[in-house]
Automatic annotation (TrEMBL):
Membrane topology: Multi-pass membrane protein
Cited InterPro entries: DAGAT (IPR007130)
Protein name: Acyltransferase
Domain of life: Eukaryota
A cellular component annotation (GO) from this entry: endoplasmic reticulum membrane
The enzyme's E.C. designation: 2.3.1.-
Family stated for the protein in its record: Belongs to the diacylglycerol acyltransferase family.
Biological source species: Drosophila mauritiana
Cell compartment(s), UniProt: Endoplasmic reticulum membrane
Main location per the UniProt record: endoplasmic reticulum
Key words of the record: Acyltransferase, Endoplasmic reticulum, Lipid biosynthesis, Lipid metabolism, Membrane, Transferase, Transmembrane, Transmembrane helix
Enzyme class: transferase
GO MF annotations, alphabetized: diacylglycerol O-acyltransferase activity
């Protein structure tokens, strides 16, 4: 295949968007490993003073996790959550279909995962201005792997971006917070927490290919149980175009690559994907995402009855409502937000 080079003369703003996107993309792919390497290098080559500082830092990480699972309360520093050029690169849009009253907490069940969950991450983590305009008084958060919050350096960056641990304890802590405007946790004017959970996780990421909306959901009921235990409403969400910004090396279910990915996922929670995108100066080789529109549609909340010990039949009922809502949303919006809507189907497995 011939390399398709980008034109020499490209507007400066587009160049800056590409630069910002390359920073975030390489950061997402390399930060877990580079954080561990940085710690190893500092411990091995650092003098006593550096090692002492690291020890203090490790203690702080431990105490923060014991106190609130490493969560940065409130919306954090908005400077780190206002990356407009990253949004405009694709661009990423946010569509509101119903109100989210700030008198309760929410689990935003987000699909599909795609390679990086880019649409949801931008709207609810990296550039939250649109969210705050559409859903006032509702703090957006994104749940990610628990061990990120125990890894030095990595945990600070994901905290700044408004991410939280997806562990049961962390979600219960956040979703059980008071919605009283006078409560000390709500003095910032926000009275609700909306936590996005990319339910399909690493399994769904392995099924991500352009034009293929394959959701891993039928046996994923933990988020429903958490919603029932905390009395949080479930908000179904679909990001149209999420699967189109990357392709990946072919990995059918019976392939050697998929078997390898499954083994790594079993032990680490991360599937080692081989993404195919574009480069900084070309359009068909590299691991940068393509400039393709992503539209996250946020559905109507599904209210639940709070119960400390969720009844399996009730969990199945709510789980079925989530599936029905996603299917309706897909049928309603696919013609508007997908390029080949007649050939595009939603598969829930």
């Amino acid at each position: 295949m011939t390399i398709e080079w980008a034109p020499l003369w490209v507007p400066l703003e587009r160049r800056l968007q590409t630069l910002v996107t390359s920073f975030f993309t390489y950061t997402f792919f390399t930060l877990p490993i580079s954080s561990c390497l940085a710690v190893a290098i500092l411990l091995y080559y650092g003098e006593m003073f550096v090692r002492s500082l690291l020890l203090i830092y490790f203690v702080k990480i431990y105490l923060d996790y014991k106190r609130n699972y490493g969560i940065m309360e409130g919306n954090g520093w908005l400077f780190y959550r206002s990356n407009r050029r990253y949004r405009n690169y694709f661009p990423v849009e946010l569509v509101k279909t119903a109100e989210l009253p700030p008198n309760r907490n929410y689990i935003v069940a987000s699909f599909p995962h795609g390679i990086l969950g880019t649409g949801t991450c931008i709207n609810m983590s990296l550039d939250i201005g649109n969210w705050l305009s559409l859903f006032p008084q509702v703090r957006p958060k994104i749940a990610t792997l628990d061990h990120h919050f125990k890894t030095p350096f990595l945990r600070d960056i994901v905290r700044w971006w408004g991410m939280v641990s997806v562990s049961k304890e962390s979600l219960a802590y956040l979703l059980s917070k008071s919605n009283d405007p006078k409560h000390k946790d709500n003095l910032d004017g926000f009275t609700s927490n909306a936590v996005a959970v990319l339910v399909g996780g690493a399994k769904e990421a392995m099924d991500s290919h352009p034009g293929q909306y394959i959701l891993t959901l039928k046996n994923r009921k933990g988020f429903v149980k958490m919603a029932v235990r905390t009395g949080s409403s479930i908000v179904p969400s679909l990001s149209f175009g999420e699967v189109d910004i990357f392709d990946q090396v072919a990995n059918p279910p019976d392939s050697s690559l998929r078997r390898f990915q499954n083994v790594v996922k079993k032990f680490t929670g991360i599937s080692p994907l081989l993404p195919k995108g574009r480069g900084i100066f070309n359009y068909n080789y590299g691991i940068l995402p393509h400039r393709r529109r992503i539209v996250q549609v946020v559905g109507s909340p599904i209210d639940v009855e709070k119960c400390e010990t969720p009844d399996p039949e009730y969990v199945d009922k709510i789980h079925g409502q989530v599936i029905d809502a996603l299917e309706r949303m897909f049928d309603e919006y696919k013609e508007k937000y997908t390029p080949n809507s007649k050939q595009t189907k939603l598969i829930i497995q």
